[in-house]
Design brief:
Distance between the termini: 35 Å
Number of strands: 0
Strand content: under 5%
Largest sheet: none
Helix content: 55-70%
Number of domains: 1
Radius of gyration: 16 Å
Order of helices and strands: HHHHHHH
Structural class: mainly alpha
Oligomer: single chain
Number of helices: 7
């Protein structure tokens, strides 16, 4: 994946909106940065969608737009032309696109700003937002070192994503 104008746009978006993740991507090896810029720029766009309007219907429409874009990516056909969606399509597998659809669904909670009913609900929200995002980003980097003795991934009961094991 090369550094296209769209990747540069994703990098600028991330630099302005999520400086910590921008710096983290800049610390990654150059060949993987385009994928990470696209994935994290997507997250920034989705995370801010519920907060840019006071109208729940408008926020729902913004999140539905991202659901539809991810559906196009998962289907493997043509995707809409957009500075984040276009490079995101190159960065994601079908499964990763589906995982990010779950992230968008979880972000709907932000629209209504209701408190979490308990710690379990809060944990589920975190797993389906930040947890899914980091899993997709890690998978986009390719297979890891299977000989690593410090961190092993296994599906957790809640989301099928990675969890730390000793």
């Amino acid at each position: 994946m090369a550094f296209s104008d769209d990747i540069f746009a994703c990098a600028r978006l991330l630099e302005r909106g999520d400086a910590a993740r921008f710096r983290a991507v800049m610390a990654a090896p150059a060949p993987v940065r385009p994928k990470l810029f696209a994935i994290f720029a997507f997250n920034l766009e989705v995370a801010r969608a519920p907060w840019v309007t006071q109208e729940p219907m408008i926020a729902e429409m913004r999140l539905q737009w991202w659901q539809d874009a991810l559906g196009e990516i998962a289907a493997g056909g043509d995707v809409r032309r957009h500075e984040v969606v276009t490079p995101l399509a190159d960065a994601l597998s079908v499964q990763a696109a589906e995982d990010l659809r779950d992230l968008v669904t979880a972000r709907r909670w932000d629209i209504y700003r209701e408190p979490f009913t308990d710690a379990g609900d809060f944990g589920s929200y975190l797993r389906h937002t930040s947890g899914r995002l980091l899993r997709v980003a890690a998978q986009a980097l390719g297979p890891g070192d299977s000989d690593c003795k410090f961190f092993h991934c296994r599906p957790c009961a809640d989301c099928g994503g990675p969890s730390a094991a000793a």
